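User: I'm putting together a small comparison set for a docking exercise, and I want a reference complex before I start. The sequence is below, and the ligand is NAP. Could you produce the 3D structure with the ligand included, as structure tokens?
Assistant: Of course. I'll restate your input first, then give the structure tokens for the complex.
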Amino acid sequence: MQKVTLNNGKEMPVLGLGLYKLTDEAATITAISAAANAGYRLFDTASAYKNEELVGKAIARLSVPREELFITTKVWNNAQRLGDIEGAFSRSLERLRLDYVDLYLIHWPVPGCYAGTWRALERFLADGRAKAIGVSNFEIRHLEELRKVSGIVPAVNQIENHPLWYQQELIEYCRDNGIQVQAYAPLARGAYLDNDVMCVLGTKYAHTPAQVGLRWAVQKGLCVIPKSQDPERIRGNARIFDFEIEDEDMAIIDTLNQNYRAASIPEDLRDIQF
Ligand SMILES: NC(=O)c1ccc[n+]([C@@H]2O[C@H](COP(=O)([O-])OP(=O)(O)OC[C@H]3O[C@@H](n4cnc5c(N)ncnc54)[C@H](OP(=O)(O)O)[C@@H]3O)[C@@H](O)[C@H]2O)c1
């Protein structure tokens, strides 16, 4: 599995398994086990996914040593509003049966809260319970705000990105500031998989449109966390390191952008302009 080195020196796999919507015990155990067998080491959950307990159970059954795994979880908006970041983090660790996570993220930039939340995450980094800390759904203005209050630059910004929503300006800002972008919903939840251009390119490269979309992101220097609970798709989504998309085809995929948001903004942040 290819890795990137984050701005604090820690390595992170380029590919991981997204775990949103996986709340069935048997399905979660099957998915995580299939992924581990296919070479995945990164698993992405969040307290908001309400599956940390299942994820903890599933990873405890793996024969992969803990130090080879990369577990990400996130602090949700209610904990930020209550200022209960320590409580939320302790409960996540307990549910996951872990004494540390590899990456702890602020799930959304809750206005008026996220700078304070970041200071709490800095403490988890200092005491070793989070090996890296980062953010999610942060735009340039949120990252600039953090820069004013903290000397610690987020290691990761996890954002929605795929051929139908290519967040070029934000990605370039992150690259210039040492923040690794990790693309969520990298399959746009299926929205581009029957796109004519992606199908033609799939045929050209003898890979599926899903693999072409994931490969496009990886060639742009992004990490990707496609979700699947189907072992066959989990294996297929990992087969993205055995081909290279030519520059002119990368440029063609860039033109598919239509700022299409596949994931929804949470109810409690709907009125906020992102
Ligand atoms: N930070 C955030 O705010 C945020 C927001 C959204 C998501 N995320 C993270 O990012 C992960 C991925 O995003 P996502 O789950 O929203 O969307 P996604 O990975 O773009 O798409 C997942 C959907 O595509 C299907 N799928 C997977 N592989 C496929 C393939 N090869 N061919 C056809 N269909 C396929 C899956 O169904 P099957 O399971 O049936 O295969 C599922 O319905 C999440 O699970 C979560 O960990 C983070």
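The longest helix spans residues 25-37. The pocket of NAP is lined by residues 18-20, 44, 107, 136-137, 158, 184-190, 193, 210, 225-230, 233, 236-237, 263 (CB under 6 Å).
User: Thanks, that's exactly what I needed.
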